[in-house]
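worker-3 :: picked CpsD/CapB family tyrosine-protein kinase
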Amino acid sequence: MEHIEKALARAREMRSGHRGSTANDSARRPNTQASVHGVMPDYTETAVLPANARKASEERLVADDLRNPVADVYRVLRAQVLQRMKKLDISTIAVTGASHGDGATTTAANLAISIALDVNQTVLLVDLNLREPSIHRKFGLTPTKGIENYLHGECDIKDCLVNPGMRRLVVLPAFASKGESAELISSPRMAALVRELRNRYHDRIIIFDVPPLLESGETLGFLPNVEGVLFVARSGHTTKTELDRAADLLRNYQVIGTLLNGSR
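worker-3 :: tokens ->
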């Protein structure tokens, strides 16, 4: 397992002398994608709902803000993850932590944004934390349908997809489920959806934000559907006991890396 604790420490040191961005600063982030070539998908069947820059900044989605030193950390993480996935010839990963507050959702979202900046990749970020979904809120999005609508057979998957105004990034949001999240995530329809998403685009990386490993049964029920796991721990929060329990639960799965988040 690899981690980027040193990079995080370096970024925290740099950030201590870095002026915080205002809402207007976020709105003026350089559009690095407009001048590059590569995979340039047309979103003709996907709703385009531009992310709220202020909300994204408040939620620590900084991977596309090239002036923020923490964005460098996510570029390091992107390189490590993509190299590992290429070596293993896989395209789907689940991002999880041991418990609530480890930062797995923020990591998944920032990793997706960072990979989308790579002109050779497209990214699908899927919110599978059906008890406490938050991906759409982090981007400041207000979609009308989520993955649970598809899993209930109420709509097509294309009706749930949202492009947050960033080229090469698509979000599949979720809303709070009504007490049946474990059944939905481990259902045959979910397994079929993962296969379909994996096979549809050869250049697409699919990142699933899943619930904390030790707090629900949903994650273990879903992991057989993906090819790799990125485990997130938080310094000063995740305990050794939790790490040992998580390692035991993940022993039969392909863990592509461990990210040690800095303390809050």
